[in-house]
Amino acid sequence: MNMFLHNINYDKFNIALGNTLLDPHFGDDKPFDAIVSNPPYSVNWIGGDDPTLINDERFAPAGVLAPKSKADFAFVLHSLSYLSGKGRAAIVCFPGIFYRGGAEQKIRQYLVDNNYVETVISLAPNLFFGTSIAVNILVLSKHKTDSLTQFIDASKLFKPQTNTNVLTDEYIEQIMQAFDNKDDVAHFAQSVEYAAIAANAYNLSVSSYVEAKDTREVIDIQKLNAELKTTVAKIDQLRAEIDAIVAEIDLPALSARQAGGRQGAK
């Protein structure tokens, strides 16, 4: 449906219907050099209720199944199993799978320990039809040449529209340049060593590694203190001038009132 809506020539692709996790297709055609997947977010599946699934070649290497109420990593492992040794998979994911504990943490550990995670990209909210959440793109690779994992914070790259936000061609190019170059860019892209991710409980949240830009106004304390001293001095001077004026006005009036009072008493 996504391909149809975006006018992609789907004659070049083989699309099959069915339960991807329990009745996978294209087993005879794999491995694939490129996989793009947008699986459903946090859906239920049979998971551990079917003990035979832990022996499935797609899930067995991780040693644990995705939670029954959150099948996200089952789809990730499914894509990984179909990937060739020179291929990449780009998977749109719910952000929670990158920091939650339990079985999901163990699967992240498997992916990181085996150096399959190339890049995690955080996108802006409300880019996809049917959901307003800010999703992430997980890029898996079986041909990495180093042990670094790249994190890209693209959450600020969007053009606001009435119904959904838009990731423009310019922003896509900016993300792709960072992905291709693997250069560190302050507040945008950071490549992280394996040891740092392992020490962080295999957390793969982009915000854990890419420092957000501080947009708060920078206050010059010395300048502010100088301005305060000047203001206080002006207030003191003004208060003195007011006191002097009040004194000039009140003294004659007070003398007249006192003189009038003495005459009335006589």
Description:
The protein is of the alpha/beta class and 266 residues long. The protein has two domains: 207 residues, Vaccinia Virus protein VP39 (Rossmann fold, 3-Layer(aba) Sandwich), CATH 3.40.50.150; 50 residues. It contains six helices and six strands. Strands 1-2-4-3-5-6 form a six-stranded mixed beta sheet, sandwiched between helices. Helix 2 links the parallel strand 1 and strand 2. The chain is elongated and about 110 Å long.
| Global structural class | alpha/beta
CATH class of the largest domain: Alpha Beta
Query: Which range does the strand content fall in?
Result: 15-25%
**Helix-strand sequence:** HEHEHEEEHEHH
- Percent helix: 25-40%
CATH fold topology of the largest domain: Rossmann fold
Please mark out the parts with pLDDT under 50 across 5 or more consecutive residues, or reply none.
none
Instruction: Give the neighbour order of strands across the main sheet.
Output: 1-2-4-3-5-6
Mean pLDDT: 88
- From the coordinates shown, what is the CATH architecture of the largest domain? 3-Layer(aba) Sandwich
Separation of the first and last Cα atoms: 108 Å
- Report the radius of gyration as a whole number of Å: 33 Å
Total count of strands: 6
Question: How many distinct folded domains?
Answer: 2
Tally of helical segments: 6
For the report, how would you describe the main beta sheet? 6 strands, mixed
- Looking at this structure, what is the CATH superfamily of the largest domain? Vaccinia Virus protein VP39
Shape summary: elongated
